[in-house]
Amino acid sequence: MRYFNGLLLLLLSLPLSAQEAPLFEITGSVSLRWEAPTTNVDGTPLTDLARYKIYWGTSSRNYSMTLDVDDPDSTNRSFAFPLDSEGQTEWHFSMTAIDEDGNESEYSNEVVKVIEVTVIDNRPPAPPTLIDTTLTLECEGSSVDVTCTVTVSDG
Fold first, then answer.
1. Residue 22 CB-half CA count within 13 A
2. What is the dihedral of CA 75, 81, 86, 89, to 10 degrees?
């Protein structure tokens, strides 16, 4: 297995945004920037870099999600991902470099961001509950000057 030197990961931002559909899905979005590796661990020039893999999760070095970055010339990526909990959540991000033979480097440095997750309920309001009610409307006066009394009783 070959290892690469020089992969440095920087966290740019992690805003929180609610999606309107489906009703309760919440996503976080992140922008990452990194410095591409230039040498192998043995000091030889890295000439066959094929892609990167971004890893992230809610605990250090225990990543539950990944994203492949197929462009070896890329040094940044923005993406959204689903959040599945309420409250304060700490997100850990790292990445690896992969050469043309599929050899994957060790994890880069890890960056951490704490965000406050709030679920926004986008459901339409529930219809009013119907109750068994008697409504009495009594009016008196002429067609120009009308006074009405409304009496509502549960029944």
1. 3
2. -20
Report the DSSP pairing between strands 133-141 and 146-154.
antiparallel
Is the dihedral angle over the CA atoms 68, 8, 106, 110 positive or is it negative? negative
- Give 3-state DSSP helix, strand, coil % of the chain, rounded to 5: 0, 55, 45
| Cβ–Cβ < 8 Å for 150, 136 | yes
| Whole-structure pTM value | 0.63
The domains of the chain, with CATH numbers, are: 4-117 (2.60.40.10)
**More confident of the two residues 29 and 20:** 29
Rounded Cα distance between 73 and 62, Å, is 27
